[in-house]
Task: inverse folding
């Protein structure tokens, strides 16, 4: 069902009390799909996310010669790319998916033909230079329209694969995105000499996502040495996926957990992995800083239920502590920012400059939307500093989402505390969570009248 546009953000009648099953992780889905396409035999993946980004990844891998069958709503069977497939001249739509536009060029280099990658207009400003320069250092020819100059840094590009990538040592500056590193590591077992990747810049953002890449490669039997900080060595060799299950998306669990904090209610997320490389596991440390109680109850051997309960004042009003400084939240930043906007004390999100290269310039978008509803924030080059304002002074507005799924969920969390907020283009959440409007409405519907948000 197409949601209304603008969409009236549901307002809870009191504290929410619900259990939310979140779909598969975007980052794990797209890594497993890619590895299955490079594997030595067919694979079956369970818990696969069905969203715009994962469909784009599947279509890209199919264009490069993989065979894909949906065997259930979240189960996909994949027959890998043949050896050196001749794909002719193909165009791949990357949409606005960082994982597709950054991860696919190295896979395209393993085919023969001309593979053109393009995407949404907003994708054409997302940085990709370091991935392209690295592939060139490894002997891959890449070209782009003349207007892009001799060293293209953005879409559209064409990869002219020869069916083989030499591999070996390569240096890149990955301070703009961890995806530059992940992109090269994921295809590296199929490079003739494997890969010795050295990062030369400032720190790499989202280190959790690189740890995730290393972890999935190891689970697929690939030898990876990450013992030297800023350096990764991947041995050439077979990729063995066979059968695996994707964990739920803990980043996308964030807005639902935040609803417990904002309303002083309780939200449970089942199937939470006991151990994970997902950055969303940091909710366990982040949410207590806003006054919430977080508990984990083991269920199966490897998963349990995460429960978050927001804090309530003596007079029954939900309270959100000002957490002070929170560093390096990466893709969690928009949800954390919504809590900072509503918090009773000051807070700063630091080390998030690279969010300017996400689906939109998220620092600027978060600052603009915070100010739109009457929140107080200062935008720095790589930080946001929030000052507390009274909830009563916040204004109902139509919040803009900039084609960014996490700006839509940011607005939904803010909309819990301000009557009559509307969200422009909530459907943009289809990038990673197509059912968000229904799931959100169902959770907010669990709120019972009483002390309210
Ligand atoms: O590899 C991945 O799956 C991702 C890496 C991160 O990118 P950045 O390092 O650009 O933040 C993250 O923010 C993005 O949502 C997904
Ligand atoms: C930055 C994000 O996505 P992408 O994979 O497109 O980089 C995100 O989901 O927050």
Result:
């Amino acid at each position: 069902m197409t949601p209304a546009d603008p969409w009236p953000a549901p307002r809870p009648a009191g504290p929410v009390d619900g259990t939310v099953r979140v779909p598969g992780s975007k980052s794990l889905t797209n890594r497993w799909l890619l590895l299955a396409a490079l594997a030595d035999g067919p694979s079956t993946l369970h818990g696969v996310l069905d969203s715009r980004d994962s469909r784009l990844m599947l279509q890209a891998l199919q264009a490069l010669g993989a065979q894909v069958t949906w065997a259930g709503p979240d189960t996909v069977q994949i027959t890998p790319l043949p050896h050196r497939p001749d794909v002719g001249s193909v165009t791949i739509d990357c949409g606005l998916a960082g994982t597709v536009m950054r991860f696919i060029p190295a896979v395209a280099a393993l085919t023969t033909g001309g593979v053109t990658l393009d995407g949404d207009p907003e994708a054409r400003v997302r940085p990709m230079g370091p991935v392209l320069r690295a592939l060139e250092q490894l002997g891959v020819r890449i070209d782009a329209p003349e207007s892009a100059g001799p060293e293209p840094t953005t879409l559209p590009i064409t990869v002219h694969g020869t069916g083989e990538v030499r591999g070996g040592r390569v240096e890149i500056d990955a301070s703009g995105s961890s995806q530059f590193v992940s992109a090269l590591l994921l295809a590296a077992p199929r490079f003739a000499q494997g890969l010795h990747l050295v990062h030369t810049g400032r720190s790499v953002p989202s280190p959790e996502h690189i740890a995730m890449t290393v972890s999935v490669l190891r689970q697929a039997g690939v030898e990876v040495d990450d013992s030297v900080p800023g350096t990764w060595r991947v041995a050439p060799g077979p990729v063995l996926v066979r059968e695996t299950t994707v964990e739920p998306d803990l980043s996308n669990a964030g807005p639902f957990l935040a609803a417990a904090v904002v309303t002083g209610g309780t939200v449970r997320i089942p199937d939470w992995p006991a151990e994970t490389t997902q950055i969303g596991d940091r909710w366990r440390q982040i949410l207590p800083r806003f006054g919430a109680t977080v508990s984990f109850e083991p269920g199966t051997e490897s998963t349990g239920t995460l429960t978050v309960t927001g804090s309530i004042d003596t007079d029954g009003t939900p309270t959100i502590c000002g957490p002070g400084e929170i560093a390096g939240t990466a893709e969690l930043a928009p949800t954390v920012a919504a809590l900072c906007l509503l918090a009773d004390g000051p807070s700063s999100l630091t080390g998030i400059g690279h969010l300017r290269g996400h689906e939109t310039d998220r620092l600027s978008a978060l600052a603009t939307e915070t100010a739109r509803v009457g929140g107080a924030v200062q935008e720095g080059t790589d930080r946001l500093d929030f000052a507390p304002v009274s909830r009563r002074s916040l204004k109902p507005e139509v919040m803009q989402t900039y084609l960014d799924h996490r700006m839509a969920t940011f607005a939904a969390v803010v909309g819990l505390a301000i009557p009559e907020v509307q969200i422009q283009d909530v459907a943009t959440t289809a990038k990673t969570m197509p059912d968000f409007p229904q799931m959100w409405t169902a959770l907010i519907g669990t709120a019972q009248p009483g002390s309210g948000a």
In short: The domain at 26-236 is CATH 3.65.10.10 (UDP-n-acetylglucosamine1-carboxyvinyl-transferase; Chain). The pocket of shikimate-3-phosphate (ligand 1) is lined by residues 27, 98-99, 177-179, 182, 205-206, 209, 330-331, 354 (CB under 6 Å). The chain has two domains: 7-24+247-444, 26-236. The chain has twelve helices and 25 strands.
